[in-house]
Automatic annotation (TrEMBL):
Spans through the membrane: none
UniProt protein name: Phytocyanin domain
InterPro entries cross-referenced by the UniProt entry: Cupredoxin, Phytocyanin-like, Phytocyanin_dom
Annotated organism of origin: Dillenia turbinata
The UniProt record lists the keyword Cell membrane: no
């Protein structure tokens, strides 16, 4: 009986330690198959998704065609482009969200943010522990 309860405890420890690490971080391809592009409804894409601290946002786009800036709410609403040295420009930008709250991202190329909808706003929550 004692060895059986030890086996059960070992299984519970594995579930308790391994499972949360598997479910903690999610990688979101922003825009799914469309990627980071013009004329895409990022508000609709984000709706219903739960973004958690530790998740990764992956912005995929052709290098040179777009970029990604992390901005504040004002920058998001008015498409205010930060200094160029703050841009993500690899075409496969992976941004890990490290804190809870609202996060805003825009494209700084031309009028992509202001006229073509290349802007993403998400709310990040703390991981839920049972």
């Amino acid at each position: 009986m004692a060895s059986n309860s030890k086996q059960v405890l070992a299984v519970l420890v594995v579930i308790g330690v391994v499972l949360p690490s598997l479910t903690l971080a999610t990688e979101f391809i922003v825009g799914d198959d469309s990627g980071w592009n013009t004329n895409f409804d990022y508000k609709a894409w984000a709706k219903g998704k739960v973004f958690t601290v530790g998740d990764k946002l992956v912005f995929k786009y052709p290098v040179g065609k777009h970029n990604v800036f992390k901005v504040n709410g004002t920058g998001f609403h008015h498409c205010i482009i930060p200094p160029a040295n703050e841009a993500f420009t690899t075409g496969n930008d992976i941004i890990t969200v490290l804190t809870p709250g609202k996060k805003w991202y825009i494209c700084g190329v031309g009028k992509h943010c202001a006229k073509l909808g290349m802007k993403l706003a998400i709310r990040v929550v703390l991981p839920h522990h049972h």
